[in-house]
């Protein structure tokens, strides 16, 4: 694989990981809110 392509791929991969982490914490917040409501 070409170097610039590899760098681009890694950048995208890192962004996906960050987004997954963000979504996971959002979900956890929602679950906690629902639990405290009950």
Key attributes of the depicted protein:
mainly alpha, coiled coil
Describe, in plain words, how this protein is organized in 3D.
Keywords: Coiled coil. Residues 2-29 form a coiled coil. With 38 residues, the chain is mainly α. It has one helix and no strands. The radius of gyration is 17 Å and the shape is rod-shaped. The relative contact order is 0.09. The mean pLDDT is 92.
Q: Which oligomeric state applies? A: single chain
Q: From N to C, what is the helix and strand string?
A: H
Strand content: under 5%
Shape: rod-shaped
Q: How many helical elements?
A: 1
Radius of gyration: 17 Å
Mean of residue pLDDT values: 92
Biggest sheet overview = none
Uncertain segments: none
Residues in helices, as a percent range: over 70%
Q: What is the SS-derived class? A: mainly alpha
In total, the number of domains comes to 1
Q: How far is the first residue's CA from the last residue's CA? A: 53 Å
Strand segment count: 0
Short description:
By secondary structure, the chain is an all-alpha fold. Helix content is 92%, strand content 0%.
Element layout with pairings:
Layout: H1 3-37
Coiled coil: 2-29
Keywords: Coiled coil
